[in-house]
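Running low. Any example?
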Amino acid sequence: MSHSFPALVTMLALALYVACFVAVGRARHQFGIKAPAVTGVPEFERVFRVQQNTIEQLVLFLPAQWLFALFVSPLWGGILGLVWIGARAHYAVSYRRNPDSRGPGFIIAFISNAILLVGAFGGIVATLI
């Protein structure tokens, strides 16, 4: 199977991250938070934390998705990647509205990342045996 699907999912994940850092720039302007400050009104801090948490998660997601796609299945790697993106988007919207409601998006993204990571590890080990 072609790796075009996981490549598309990678681009969508990066687009999600771009949306996160654009939101931080807009929030800086809206709330008058001058760089390099990262604190201010709670509304700005929530937008900033979403962006920071998203990049922290991308560091794990991108290699896990690609290793899963290469060693297990490009189709399922892409599907799990779409689940991760949807969950991260839900997390972002929820966190901005009410930080206490971010749990479901975080948990679903965490689980999809864990499946990608464990699956990739298993696929790699299977090729070595």
